Amino acid sequence: xxxxxxxxxxxxxxxxxxxxxxxxxxxxxxxxxxxxxxxxxxxxxxxxxxxxxxxxxxxxxxxxxxxxxxxxxxxxxxxxxxxxxxxxxxxxxxxxxxxxxxxxxxxxxxxxxxxxxxxxxxxxxxxxxxxxxxxxxxxxxxxxxxxxxxxxxxxxxxxxxxxxxxxxxxxxxxxxxxxxxxxxxxxxxxxxxxxxxxxxxxxxxxxxxxxxxxxxxxxxxxxxxxxxxxxxxxxxxxxxxxxxxxxxxxxxxxxxxxxxxxxxxxxxxxxxxxxxxxxxxxxxxxxxxxxxxxxxxxxxxxxxxxxxxxxxxxxxxxxxxxxxxxxxxxxxxxxxxxxxxxxxxxxxxxxxxxxxxxxxxxxxxxxxxxxxxxxxxxxxxxxxxxxxxxxxxxxxxxxxxxxxxxxxxxxxxxxxxxxxxxxxxxxxxxxxxxxxxxxxxxxxxxxxxxxxxxxxxxxxxxxxxxxxxxxxxxxxxxxxxxxxxxxxxxxxxxxxx
Length: 497
Description:
Layout (H helix, E strand, L loop, with lengths): L5 H4 L4 H6 L5 H8 L3 H6 L15 H14 L3 H10 L1 H7 L10 H11 L5 H15 L7 E10 L7 H19 L3 H4 L12 H16 L2 H4 L2 H20 L9 E4 L5 E11 L5 E8 L8 H10 L6 E3 L7 H9 L3 E3 L4 H4 L12 E3 L4 E3 L8 E5 L3 E2 L2 E2 L3 E6 L1 H5 L4 H4 L8 E6 L4 H9 L3 H7 L3 H14 L8 H25 L6
Parallel strand pairs: 1-5, 5-6
Antiparallel strand pairs: 1-3, 2-3, 3-4, 7-8, 9-12, 10-11, 12-13
Helix pairs in contact: 3-7, 5-6, 5-8, 5-23, 6-7, 6-8, 9-23, 10-12, 10-14, 12-14
């Protein structure tokens, strides 16, 4: 068993002070955090009567952090740990200590990290570390969501494998164009639906490249080989279905969509993420607000202000904020707040602020809209309706049509809203004109920068694993890393992201 205490016993420990600068991020992260909390967090995931685990859970978790930080396969993160002294220092290993087998890390992330509460526990711990290091967190909560394409996208597992394989081939062709003639023949369009043929093809591509020592010696080729091999292994084990069943279609604009997940994030103006929830892509941002507030307060951060875009200004959130003496800074959108209530699913229609269209409970977006009634009276808006029309052909085959009130033979499926505001909306609209509201609204850009950081630096634009559990694990580890690095910046007196 690898023990962290081995650092004290090693005769080569002085190498770390010679090789690793004091300001190296991995050295700073290792010195910042007592990772023994991971052992306690995962103790229920191990069976006591089967003996102690071969590697301490905290060591395995650090490998996961490195994998997330540097976007590496299980095999490559272990390979780097063999020779990179900064990796070994962070892992709590002595310079001469052996590293784990890559298969051990694969089993750890699939079998030991299955607790649905792990994301919340990791975020809570990172907030605790921030507070313990003297970082004072404001009582303002900035909220937003960021989307991640599913690992298998709207594509099948077979199509995804071909895409990963294509990326590897392109890197090989950049080095040696002659391989355009040497590569195995791709399955034709009629064969592409056969999963076994694609697996065999991808494996043959790997074997062909491995026969060339000059190619395999190049780190970018070797790492892409390992990514393809890991994708093959994961696909064989996890996904023998047409696509990621937990992922759903979400809409970024009226003309663009994605197939995947949403991570709903809450953070303070200090850019520390204090809460998150993960949902499928079609879920409405505003519905997650109260859960985010509850999680933030459970992490020891009081909430006095909430700053978000128009998606959070629905009636229930305005009422919730008023009842809890919280200032809600979210520009009122009439269409978010009021709609017809004819059946049990009407309350689940929601307004997509980017596309400016309503989305039904099954995730389908309206295809057009029309307005009725006078819009102006004595220079002011008068009561009028906007009606949203949905694709009738999709409604006919929808599994929710009975609950949604759709009848066979129906000529159209519509959803209507009115711009007539209730008293609660009027009061909220008036608050938008106050100087305090205007100043608080200026904080919202910070969470957009945080979302960009997650996507650009930590691969959060795409899910690394299949299923919502995998997305939740990715969120937990990514946010934990992002928060710790932010704590370091604040401790070192640096601002920015």
